[in-house]
TrEMBL record:
GO CC terms in record: cytosol
This protein's UniProt keywords: ATP-binding, DNA damage, DNA repair, DNA-binding, Hydrolase, Metal-binding, Nucleotide-binding, Stress response, Zinc, Zinc-finger
The record's note on its domains: The middle region has homology to RecA with ATPase motifs including the RadA KNRFG motif, while the C-terminus is homologous to Lon protease.
Entry similarity comment: Belongs to the RecA family. RadA subfamily.
Binding-site residues for ATP, renumbered to this chain: 94-101
DNA repair keyword on record: yes
One biological process term in Gene Ontology: recombinational repair
Gene behind the chain: radA
Protein name: DNA repair protein RadA
Pfam families (UniProt xref): AAA_25, ChlI, Zn_ribbon_LapB
Location of the region described as Lon-protease-like in the Swiss-Prot/TrEMBL record: 350-460
Occurrences of domain RecA family profile (ranges): 65-214
Alphabetical list of InterPro entries matching this protein: AAA+_ATPase, DNA_repair_RadA, P-loop_NTPase, RecA_ATP-bd, Ribosomal_Su5_D2-typ_SF, Ribsml_uS5_D2-typ_fold_subgr, Rubredoxin_2
Annotated coiled-coil segments of the chain: none
């Protein structure tokens, strides 16, 4: 007589749902510590049940109820792919004090202006505090309803009574559900509250915007399933020392994920910045050594950013390498390439590199502009006025092509730049005399040494 098979207990991560047959202290998927716990054994088997709506051919499904509706904030519509979609669940995450509540209050006010009922639920502030901000930013309207609640049941009751078209929850970490284990903001609570809000959004065709907190490393706090439940995940970024803010789409089921929106946050509220390039470029009256303008792509939008470098003799055994707005490891690699392939010796010099206006450059296309700024500061020779440089630098000193080059050149020409240094096509010869593209004089070079020679920033 055969023995019954031994049932193995399963362990599941409460953060991401990863499963294992034995207990471990650290999740093998999301690397969270202390999140693996024994999962309850299933006691019921799924059985067939009545369907809510019958299945129909996909061509017969109506799309009229899922058309875009403007949020009243053009830059946010750009990131969302056209506007707010009825029934969509949107998660907006960002650091404390970056302006999430101010942005969503402006969206709620703009929606209420077109006679669309909006419900703003705050769990972090009192109703009077939100009213003060609305008075300051001009967001008081009859169709904008405000409630201060931290209980999920009360929030659902408000939704039943108000019947809004747009629902804003600020924030999901402050809402708790009775009968669910854990405190508000815990893994179980956040997952259940978010699932309930998304379910209401889908069944009642309500556009729901949920505010989420972030951890110290910038990732969204709470279980990873939270990002899977919603349709759109937006990150609100910005430097505390600057008024400039950016909204970046990390997930979007209704549009592209390579778009960004630019905003200006002030005491009067938040407003869209449709042309942010001028914030990151200084207009010098004369040629200045140690500066160069790069053209980067934020999503599908070209943006110009000025890079500044300062090279000074060092008395330290290990010279300093200080950066602001630029990746320090990228600058270290560029310094090594300049020493090896351009003959610029910087092992006894302090190097400081930064961007203007609080811009953050992460794209490799800015490598050439950084190299020109460093070489210019070292030699004391200023690059020609009205020049931009773009190109990725390889370890062999070669320049690699960058994407969307025509759009970058067109944006630089629109802002008055008349000369550009770009990488040449693979296998194509360099053009020492240059060529004209949209009124710009474009020089095609293949190496970083040729680029520095073309802008005359090398020591003679």
């Amino acid at each position: 007589m055969s023995k019954p098979a031994k049932v193995k207990s399963a362990f599941r991560c409460t953060e991401c749902g990863w499963e294992t047959t034995k207990w471990v202290g650290r999740c093998g998927e999301c690397q969270a510590w202390g999140s693996v716990a024994e999962a309850a054994a299933p006691t019921l088997r799924a059985a067939a049940s009545p369907v809510t709506t019958p299945a129909v051919p996909i061509g017969q499904v109506s799309v009229e109820d899922s058309t875009f509706r403007t949020s009243g904030v053009p830059e946010l519509d750009r990131v969302l792919g056209g506007g707010l979609v009825p029934g969509a669940a949107i998660l907006l995450a960002g650091e404390p004090g970056v302006g999430k509540s101010t942005l969503l209050l402006e969206v709620a006010a703009q929606t209420a202006r077109v006679r669309t009922r909006t419900l703003y639920v705050t769990g972090e502030e009192s109703a009077s505090q939100v009213r003060l901000r609305a008075d300051r930013t001009g967001g008081v309207h009859d169709e904008l309803f405000l409630a201060a609640e931290t209980d999920l049941g009360a929030v659902l009751t408000h939704i039943e009574q108000v019947r809004p078209t747009l629902l804003v929850i600020d924030s999901v970490q402050t809402i708790g559900a009775s009968g669910i284990e854990g405190v508000p903001g815990g893994v179980t609570q956040v997952k259940e509250v978010a699932a309930a809000l998304v379910r209401v959004a889908k069944t009642r065709n309500i556009t729901t915007v949920i505010v989420g907190h972030v951890t110290k490393d910038g990732s969204i706090a709470g279980p990873r399933v939270l990002e899977h439940l919603v349709d759109v995940v937006l990150h609100f970024e910005g430097d505390r020392n600057s008024r400039f803010r950016m909204v970046r789409a990390m997930k979007n089921r209704f549009g592209p994920i390579d778009e960004v929106g630019c905003f200006d946050l002030s005491s009067e509220g938040i407003r869209a910045v449709t042309d942010p390039t001028g914030l990151f470029v200084e207009h010098h009256s004369s040629q200045v050594p140690g500066t160069c303008v790069a053209v980067t792509m934020e999503g599908r939008r070209p943006m110009l950013a000025e890079v500044q470098a300062l090279v000074t003799p060092s008395l330290l055994e290990r010279p300093r390498r200080t950066t602001s707005g630029i990746d320090g490891s990228r600058v270290a690699m560029i310094l090594a390439v300049l020493q090896q392939h351009a003959g610029i010796r910087l092992h006894q010099h302090d190097v400081f590199a930064s961007t203007v206006g609080g811009a953050r450059i992460t794209e490799p296309a800015a490598d050439l502009a950084i190299a020109v700024a460093i070489a210019s500061s070292t030699s004391g020779a200023a690059p020609p006025k009205g020049i931009v440089a773009m190109g990725e630098i390889g370890l062999a000193g070669e320049l690699r092509r960058v994407r969307d080059l025509p759009q970058r050149l067109a944006e630089a020409a629109r802002l008055g730049f008349r000369m550009a240094i770009v990488p040449s096509e693979p296998g194509a010869p360099e053009s020492p005399r240059g060529r004209n593209v949209d009124g710009m004089h474009v020089l095609d070079v293949s190496t970083v040494f040729s680029a520095l020679q073309a802008v005359q920033v090398l020591k003679r």
